[in-house]
Each structure stands twice: as structure tokens, then as C-alpha cells.
Amino acid sequence: MATNRETFPVEFKGGLITNLSPLQQGINMPGSAATLKNFEPSITGGYKRILGFSKFDPFVIPPYGSPVVFGASQTGTTFIIAGTHTTPASGDTLTVAGISGTYTVGSVAFDGINNRTTLTLTTSLAASPDNGAAVTFVTYTTVFRTSGVEVFNDSVLVALNNDLFQTTGAGYTKINVPSYGTVLVNGASQTGATLAVDALTSVPQAGDVFTIAGVDKVYTVLTNATVSSGGSTLAINPDLASSPADNAVITFISLSREGALRTRFSEYNFTGTKKVSIVDGVNSPAIYDGSTFTDLVAAPADVVGATQVIDFKNHIFYGKLDVLSFTAPFLDTNFETGDGAGSIRVGDKITGLAIFREQLIVFTEKTIFKLTGVSSSTFVLTAITLDIGCIDGDTIQEIGGDVMFLTGDGLRLLSATDRIGDFGLGVVSKTIQNVMTDFIASASLFSSVVIRAKSQYRVFAFNPNSIGASAKGIIGTQFSPQGGEDFAWSEIRGIDVFAASSKLVDSNEVIVFSSNTGHIFKMEDGNSFDSTDITAEYLSPFLPLNDPRTRKTIYKVYLYTDPVGSVNFDFSLKFDYDELNSVQPESISFTNATSAISFYGDNNFATYATTASGSSGATSVTVAANTNMVIGNGIVGTGIPTNTTITDISGTTITISAALTATISNVRVTSSGSVFGGKVQNIFSTQTVGTGFTTAISFKSISQDPPFSLDTAMLEYATKSRR
């Protein structure tokens, strides 16, 4: 028999915790989480379902570069194309500029030396295409992963299959196109496998592809050229189809960056023009200023094949193996020691570079150093720790005036590591250590972003065997007002991230990433994972409700939340650690867009959600449906002033008490209780019958609804006899 009625508030805060016993967690941190997936601890309170992602560009990144027709007069099913640094695959489909039809690839013979491919098509060419006509692959049978992405100005740079592209969201433009000047044929009557040229401003490289005005076919440079006074004799394939005219224009259409690995970028501005330095672990570094791509073919051996790059004190620093190299000050192409360039050995493989408090931080696999000074004569390298390193430089991010990075034992902040060295206290992810251990073991490649508006760090593990719903990520929200080590954690599931970039562009935060689909995506955009449902889960610790030795019966649960619009989830209570012999009540499906479940207080509260349209300044709105709308109800939505009410209803036209502040079209409107960022509302109460010594609260949402926040739950219960 019940002895008293009590209420127990559960304030949702603290994030995911896995390093406490269930009873300790339930007593000391009842609002923390034993499971927290696709919810984020929010700096505005509670746990908020994360936003989704959508395609930044609807088009697929061109997987084979910019292929063109190799020679005019081609007919039938045999089709030769040039400018392919990667082999197409059987089953791919393509179109050819100037002729009709879409063609399917049957067999493939790839010539990697000459960057040329012979395709056998399943149907004959409708006509003979022009030499050098563009070939566009429409569909692909191969999975393509980008090797790097970077937000640059108002665009995104992306590396794929040895090529680099730029997009503003409406298609991709190849940027690794040689800039050798206005190159001309030097002398008429040339034949054979060589071609004399002049007017070179840089050195052509083996694998470059070009055309000659008035000459059939597309030609490949076979060896790195030797240039003297702007002139050179190029070894080419194939032999010249005909003798070009003297001073015929040579057009380079592709620059070879063979074998590119993980591609990284560093933006800088030495002269008033924003540029980005690019490294890929194999090739010479490159520079791009938004229009011109410059391959630094004269870079020293310790720079060619660099894996890391950063701008520090007006030098460009490169990391390759254990060598840290830097250019002369303000001279991004100058590696002359006499002009202030140089190099420093750090003793271990460099895994990442970062700027922190006017210092260059050099991460290796096992150590961390700091470089101070402003020039080659004053640079000094000193150790921060000789016992801790960073396992992946793409996890290094500045957050809250500190630097986060991934080590073999979890996530650390640089300031704490500098202060206490190799002590475990420096690991800020200790509260989720077992989750972190599994996360690190799940992959060998990681990436990260920061979301500044949310004081949030996100790190992702990429494993080709764990994609889709099983793809893993970790969220850390920093709650200390002045930075520091106070983080609350949660997990991400279902976002495949191979490479990522986050940057402020004109005060707007742009967060992009690539997956293994050949697309670039925009994170923090929309209410779905690219049109698929977002699955979000929360499970509280098991709560003893003041006394773990007393049996309790839960009669009612009140949920306080802050929804943007529709909310749909399954709610349940679990008793006594969800043991097999304990009776568990059935889950309850909840939505705030219907009246299937009783709402707390006024039954009209949040029982409608529809779309509306209207003109700025108007006091009438056309709605898709007026079900459950009542004169006097409050109404909210984008473009509707605060505290607006319904004054009249006529069919699907409603009159409102205040004029629209903007023209709206297909805007969701709801009752005023569903204002995001407004007053937290008790939107749900349910009779529930369950009994046990401990109980846990569970929510699961599978939807494309707008995000909602779990703020507080109130359990109404009665105690029975002591165990």
C-alpha cells in the first residue's frame, strides 16, 4: 500500500556518462545519459536533437577529372578518351559533347602512363565527335572518396582521384589546370615524338595533357621538362599527327597529381589576396588564389610529398616525416635559406600543426613541441611533452581558446597537457572512456569540425565497413564560460565523414564534409540525413528516486520540452536495470501534432501544425488546414510577430492580430506553445503504471521533424514498503 505521493524532477543535463556505476550515476547525476545518440548537450539547456545534413552541391564530383575525346573521326563501339588519371569502370555511363545519346561502358583498357583510356561501348557512337570534345560521365559503378575538403571564400575546394575541384553549389570546376603561360609551338615542320615550345613561365611535368591548335589528338608529356629561357623540347605521346604551324597555341588541359593521398589545406593572406596552400602527401605542394593554380615543382625534397601545412608568422610551414620546413617570410614560393627559409628536424613523424597563443604547435605520433619566434634567426623549438602525441592531425581544432586533439587514450586539451603532462587527468573525455576506446579502435582515419555557435567539437571515425547508420561520431559541448575542461558528451550515428571543414565566411558558419558517395554535404542543414530519417535515442541512468531500497509505483510522467514544430517519439520507463524477470510497461508513441495523447492543460495546446502563406504586412494568412484552430489561439511561425493570435477563421483563410513581418510561403505554423526558444512547455503527460526499485526514462525518435529539446521530466510516484 502506498505510503505517500511524491514527485521527482529529472533535469536533462550532464551528457553521456559511462565511467560510473549505474547506481552512482542515478543518485548523483540523474539527468545525465546512459545512452545519448543524435542528441547534443545544448548550451541553452537540455538535450537537443541534432540538425541534419543536405547536399552542398547536387552534382557528383567528377571522378575521372576532365576527360576529352582523343582524336577525331572515331566511329563504332571503340572509343578512346584522354585526360583520365584514374580508370573508368565497366557499367559507367557517359555523354559526349556534340553528339546525341548516353553510352554505357562495356570493357576498359587504361593507359596510366599516357593518362588515356580505350573504352568498348555497348552501342555505337551516333556520330564522330570532335577532337578534344568534353566527355561527361553520368553514372558510376565505383565508390569514390574525396581525400580532402576546404571552405575557401564562398566556395568549397575538394580533392578527388588526383584532381582538385571548386564548387559554389552548382557544379564542379577543375582547378589543377597548369598555368605555364601562353605556350607556343617553336618552329614549323616538326614531326615525331618531340615538340619544341617556348613562352613557358613554369616547368611542364610528366603526365600533363595538352592540345595543339590545328593538330588532331590530345598529347601527354612523358617526362618532366627542362626549361631554358622559356623554351623546352617536350617528350610526348603519341607522335604528332601532323606538323603544327609555328607559334600555334598549346593549351594544357590537365595537370597530373598522381597518387595523391590525404589532401590538406591552409588559408593565408600575405599580399591582400586570399590564397590556400595545398599538400597531398605525394606531390609538390600547390597554391591556389581562386583563379590560378600554381604547382611548386621547384620545392625542395623535404617539402615535396608534405602531409601537413600551415601559415605561421608570415611563413608557410610544411611537415613531412620528421622535418618541419618553412618558406621565406611573405614569400610563399621561396625556399632559399638566404632569404629566410629553412627546416627543423623534430625527431618523430609529424602528424599535425596548429597555432596556439602565438606559438606553432607541432604534433607527432608520440610527442608535442612548440615553436616560438618570428623568423629563421629567432625560431626556437621546445618540448611540451615527450610522452603524448596526436594520432591524427585532422582531429586538431581550436575551441574555447584551447586546442582539442585525439590521442591514443582519448581527447585532450593542449593547455591541460602542457600543464600536467602525461597524467590521465588531461584526458577530457574520461567520462566516456569505454565509448572513446571503442571509437578509436573502430577506424584508422578521423576528421573533425567545430561549431562555434554551439561551443561544440565533433570528431568522426571513418571505416568503410561501418557506413550508413553505423557510422560513428562524438560530440563534445563546452560549458565553461571562459573555456576550460568542462565538456558534456554524446554520440553521433549515421553521418559518414571522410574529410571535413568548418569556417566562418562573412559571419556565417559553413560546415561541409565528404563521404564515400562522391558528394559534398553541408552539416547543420535541414531535419534529415539527406532525406533519410534521423534516429535519436536517450536513456537516463536508473534512478533510485531517493531510496534504492524502496519499491515505487510511477503513476504519471510530465515532459517539459522546447519544440520547433512537430515532435514524434516513443517514450517508455524501464525498471530495475531492465532485468529479464522484471515487468516492463509498454512504450507510448507521442506526437504533438495530434490529440491521440492527452496534453497537459488546455486540450487545444499544440494540437495543430500546418503550413501557411501570406504577404508581408498582411493580416490574413492562407493555411493548408484549419483543423483544431480556434479564434483566440496563439499562432507562431517564421514571419509572424510574437504574441499573435487568431481573430477570425473563414475556411482556410485566418485573420491574425498582427501584420506579417515578411512574405511567407509554405511556412509551418503551430499553436503558440510550440515556439522554439520561447517558454519551455509541459507538453505531455501520461498515465503510466509501472513498479520497481529503480527506473530509467527512455526516448527514441525516428523522424524528419525539426529538432526538439528535452528539458525536464517530472515523475509522479508513490512509495511502497522497503525491501
Architecture overview:
The protein is mostly beta strands and 723 residues long. Among the domains are: 68-139, Elongation Factor Tu (Ef-tu), domain 3 (Beta Barrel), CATH 2.40.30.290; 184-254, Elongation Factor Tu (Ef-tu), domain 3 (Beta Barrel); 612-665, no CATH class. It has 3 helices and 56 strands. The strands form 12 sheets. Strands 1, 3, 4, 45, 54 and 56 form a 6-stranded antiparallel β-sheet that branches. The model is unreliable at 593-607 and 673-680 (pLDDT under 50).
- Which structural class should the secondary elements be placed in? mainly beta
What is the average of the pLDDT values?
A: 87
Radius of gyration: 31 Å
Gross morphology is globular
Ends apart, CA distance between termini = 13 Å
The percent of residues in helical segments reads: under 10%
Describe the biggest sheet? Answer: 6 strands, antiparallel
CATH topology of the domain at 68-139: Elongation Factor Tu (Ef-tu), domain 3
- As an assembly, this protein is single chain
Q: For this structure, what is the CATH class of the domain at 68-139?
A: Mainly Beta
β-strand percent reads 35-45%
User: Number of DSSP strands?
Assistant: 56
Count, helices: 3
Low-confidence runs of at least 5 consecutive residues: 593-607, 673-680
Under the CATH scheme, the architecture of the domain at 68-139 is Beta Barrel
Quick description:
The chain is mainly beta.
Secondary structure layout plus pairing:
Layout (H helix, E strand, L loop, with lengths): L3 E8 L10 H7 L6 E3 L1 E3 L5 E3 L3 E3 L12 E2 L8 E5 L10 E4 L6 E9 L4 E6 L13 E5 L8 E5 L2 E6 L2 E5 L4 E3 L9 E2 L8 E5 L10 E4 L6 E3 L10 E6 L12 E5 L9 E5 L6 E5 L6 E3 L4 E3 L12 E5 L2 E6 L2 E4 L15 E4 L4 E7 L2 E6 L3 E5 L7 E6 L11 E3 L2 E6 L2 E4 H7 L12 H9 L3 E7 L4 E7 L9 E7 L8 E7 L5 E7 L2 E7 L5 E4 L10 E6 L10 E14 L4 E8 L12 E4 L17 E6 L5 E4 L11 E2 L9 E5 L2 E4 L7 E8 L9 E12 L2 E9 L4 E15 L1
Antiparallel strand pairs: 1-56, 2-44, 3-4, 4-56, 5-43, 6-7, 7-10, 8-9, 8-11, 9-10, 12-13, 13-14, 14-15, 16-17, 17-20, 18-19, 18-21, 19-20, 22-23, 23-24, 24-25, 26-27, 27-28, 28-29, 30-31, 31-32, 32-33, 34-35, 35-36, 37-38, 38-39, 39-40, 41-42, 42-43, 44-55, 45-54, 45-56, 46-47, 46-55, 48-49, ...
